[in-house]
Amino acid sequence: MIDRTYQTLFVDNMYNALLEKGNTAGVCPTGGGKTYIMARLVQKVGGKIAVLQSSIELVKQNMRKFRDVIPGLHMSLYTAEAKSWRGDVTFAMAQTLARNLSSIPKLDMLLVDECHHIVAPGYLKIVEAVKDKNPDCMIAGVTATPARGDGKGLRAVFDNCCAQISLHSLISMGFLVRPRTFVCTLGGTDEKLASLRKTRSGEYDMHEAAEVLDLAVHNEAVVREWRKLAGDRKTIVFCSTVEHARHVLEAFLAQGVRAALVTGEMPAGERKALLERFDKVDAANGVQVLVNVAVLTEGYDSQPVSCVVLLRPCSQKSTMLQMIGRGLRVVDPALYPGVVKKDCIVLDFGRSLVTHGDLESKVRLDDKPKTCPECGAEIPRGVMECPICGHAFKAPARGAGGDPDGEDGPEAVSNVAMEEVDLLNASPFRWCDLFGSGKVMLASGFEAWSAVCSADGENWLALGKLKGEGTLRRLAVGERIPALAAADDFLRMNESDDAAKKNRRWLNDACTEKQWGHLQRLGYGQGSMLAFTKYSAACTLNFFWNRGLIEREVLHV
After folding, report:
1. Mean pLDDT, 10 residues at a time, over the chain (557 residues)?
2. Domain range annotation of the chain
3. Hey, what CATH topology would domain 178-356 get?
4. The pTM is what?
5. Homologous superfamily of domain range 5-166
6. Could you give the angle at the alpha carbon of 41 between the alpha carbons of 13 and 374, nearest 5°?
7. Strand order in the sheet with 440-444
């Protein structure tokens, strides 16, 4: 496992805030490595720690990831089935722990996953009990979406948000695919959806929403539009009510689509089996469309998902982002051979994108802090909505010295080239453009090399090769920036020594006589000799010695 630069900075910010303030929250979008960040924070803090989750799926997911990140970590479970504090780190279900407060031992840190739940009564009781046992216990939380549907702020527990990475930044760095959003208007629904009443929780009344959206003619239109724009994609559909979901399922099945419904009442074993079928690549026997209400909003990941259908309105941007986030993960070709994912299509039939205007503004992790005028929390300067209380900051006017990365639509996601340069500059390896076209980029180490190639400039392939291996590894297939990110990750994982990294002087030395002899045999003339360094020669030779394997892979993208 490797630390990406933004993850290392995120963990450092959280750790420093905990030492200074005793509490802190961090905001990391779905797909940004939230669990990985939590594991690294646990490793840095040490001591007796409890990790608090809201569902058994999150408990299991977190345990698996922590085990990968920190091999040999002594872990225990506190759930309805198993109640133990024997581990250095205990993964606890919030609902179970709230009923067994007297069991909580003296903790050094309470780490809350999906920490927007922390002001719920059960969570507040847990925090109080933890502090009773140890007033100096640090409280940390991480979430993708700090805003709550009921409008409650997190100030009761957190007085600062030390770190926030934006969805836009992760997309621009190649760690998430880009969303392609379509606002789809069903006849006569716009005005009705705009005037929906809100419940006490702050969310739109989903039964009223279903009365507007759940008509046979609408459900048939949804399937028709889905076929036009995303008919070959793995899809998750979010509906307003369970009855609405059943009717939407029937509409998909009537058109011969392999669809299934997952509900909260479904037995755990049956739900697990269905989700595994959906996650499979097998087109003949798998499920292509998964219909649900709110079951898959948090804590569910399936990399092949490349379409999200919103058949419900979202009064809170956080809910919308959670749902869209289900389709933004990049695909690992080793886990899903043959799956190519370049983007995620979002079909919004509930006006959520109209309501909120965008997905988010860009935020930098290294922003200097500012103080929220509403709740007094310390937050990163680039944040336009306080993660602690929800206060919305007014975006500076453009063209008048304002922030170019404010909340205004397309401009916030247009500067991809600059982010790509940042990605290459941030890499510890030197990437060589072998032919000056940008279509073959290669970086070499002592234990591995990696290449990013394209035959047409549109479809990109990341390849890696370890020393002593005879075959190439497919690392990513899709757009250029995610391919570069995957290739760079591969080198980071397999080059533990920094001798081959770009800060080493020898990389600029003239190529050796032996290297030049090989290059001459490849057809390079005497005039080319001065153009090669030891490093660029090594990259060029690695390409030509493996050219047949590389071209074969590129031709099968």
Report:
1. 82 95 91 91 96 90 92 94 95 96 97 92 96 97 79 87 85 86 85 82 83 91 93 93 95 95 90 90 79 86 93 83 89 90 91 74 64 89 81 57 34 31 69 86 90 90 91 91 88 76 79 90 78 88 92 84
2. 5-166, 178-356, 427-555
3. Rossmann fold (3.40.50)
4. 0.73
5. P-loop containing nucleotide triphosphate hydrolases (3.40.50.300)
6. 45
7. 432-433, 440-444, 448-453, 460-466, 473-478
